[in-house]
Every structure is written in structure tokens, then in C-alpha cells.
Amino acid sequence: MTVLHLNGVSRVHGSGENAVNALVDAELTIAAGELVAIMGPSGSGKSTLLNLAGGLDAPTSGQVLVEGTVLASLNKKQLAGLRRRSIGYVFQDYNLVPSLTAAENAALPLELDGMSAGKSRKLALAALEEVGLDVKQGDRFPDELSGGQAQRVAIARALIGDRRLVLADEPTGALDSTTGEEVLKLLRARCDAGAAGLLVTHDARHAGWADRIVFLRDGRIVDTSAPLADADALLEGVE
Ligand SMILES: Nc1ncnc2c1ncn2[C@@H]1O[C@H](COP(=O)(O)OP(=O)(O)OP(=O)(O)O)[C@@H](O)[C@H]1O
């Protein structure tokens, strides 16, 4: 099932002499179960692509579809609802609410959607357990968690409910390399469990967790590759 489809998407920032073609005619499809990495030099359009995929920004031309819905066809309220129910974000700096516990942070999207506190806490604790955190850790505040634990909470929050699309912008940027690998392993596992993931990264080793890597240059998709398939082919050659 296709979760995200970018259909000939372009985004021009600014106008006239200052116009920047941040994304040009991008075609991208991500299915449930897939993790796709985006790589490219600074200013190549990675954040622009991620923002368009998450409905935080609108294309100048082309269409963005999430679970079959054209985002531009929705009014503001409908778009906010779809984003809350279908899309989760994971940022480099976790973006947890400091005055809420880990479980309250994870439960936030459900409560915003009108679920009772008791029911959303139950689901939040289950979501935290899926990312390897127990009840005790769930009752801690963000400043009482390690960076890796905080990012786990962010992943739990991104995928709570039945949200299918997780958009991760340099999620390991603030973590040491071992913790970063653990967070990516977790993102990979959540995609294996049925989510669709889009991961912006500068690190080729981290991109190795993805099914495909999309390379951007000057706003254009210049190459896509399948690192895992290549690794399998190499191993087959050895046997
Ligand atoms: N709001 C904006 N107004 C004007 N230009 C913008 C805006 N946002 C991005 N740009 C420009 O669009 C181009 C793509 O930017 P974008 O942030 O998507 O790149 P990036 O690949 O994410 O870069 P980085 O790796 O540095 O985060 C750049 O030339 C940038 O300067």
C-alpha cells in the first residue's frame, strides 16, 4: 500500500530575482514497510521535500498524496486532522514538551485528537514499551532521560495511534554513534512493522538502514539506489 506519493512536485521559494527552485519535479513513492533515506549536499532541498511530505509546506506545482489523499484538496482543519492521525515527525532535537513526562509526551497526539487521558496513557505506555522503555522511564521528564531515550520517546510519539508516515530529519544528529545506530534500528523495526519512513541523513552508514536512498542535488532527484539489495548481492557472490 502506498503511503506517500510525490507526483511531479516542485517548490519555488521567493519570487522574481530571488526565486529559488528548492525542489524540481520530484517523483517519489513510499509504501508501507519501506524506509527511504534522502541524502544530498546542504541546500539541495532535503528539508523542503520533508516539509512538503508532511503538509507543513505546499507545492508550487504537482501533488502530495498521503494514504491516497491529495493534501491540497483539504482545508486547514482537515489538513491538521490528517497530519495528526497519519503523520509523525522525529527531529534532531527530539522536540519533547519539557513539562510533560515521557508517557504524556507520547500520548499528546491522542489527547489532542480527543481521546480520554486514561485510554491515551495506556496506549502511550504500550508505545513506549515497543521502543524499549518501561513504565518507570515513562514517568520521567525529558530532562531526566538520556538523548537516546528521548529520541525513543519521540519515535513512540511519532507512530502512536495508527499513524503510518514517519518523517525523520537528522534524528541521530545529537546522539553518539552507538545510540544513533540503536535509534535507526528502531526506526527500521517500526517500518518493518508497517510504517513508511522518510529519513534525512548526512551519514551514509545511517542511510544503509534504508531500503532505498534518494539523492538530491539542486532540488532534483539525481539518483536512487538500493543499498540492502547491493549488500545481499555481494554476500551471494561470496558464498
Ligand atoms: N523559506 C525559504 N525562503 C527562501 N529560500 C528558501 C526557504 N527555505 C529553503 N530555501 C532555499 O531552498 C533551497 C533548499 O533548501 P533546503 O533547506 O530544503 O535544503 P537542505 O538540503 O535541507 O539543506 P540543509 O542540509 O542545509 O538543511 C536552498 O537554496 C535554501 O536556501
TrEMBL record:
Keywords linked to the UniProt accession: ATP-binding, Nucleotide-binding, Transport
GO-annotated cellular components: membrane protein complex; plasma membrane
SMART domains in the record: AAA (SM00382)
Residue span(s) of domain ABC transporter: 4-238
UniProt protein name: Putative ABC transport system ATP-binding protein
Coiled coil: none
PANTHER family per UniProt: IMPORT ATP-BINDING PROTEIN, TRANSPORTER, PUTATIVE-RELATED
A Pfam family hit: ABC_tran
InterPro entries in the cross-refs: AAA+_ATPase, ABC_transporter-like_ATP-bd, ABC_transporter-like_CS, ABC_transpr_LolD-like, MacB-like_ATP-bd, P-loop_NTPase
Domain of life from the UniProt record: Bacteria
Native source organism of the sequence: Glycomyces harbinensis
A GO MF term: transmembrane transporter activity
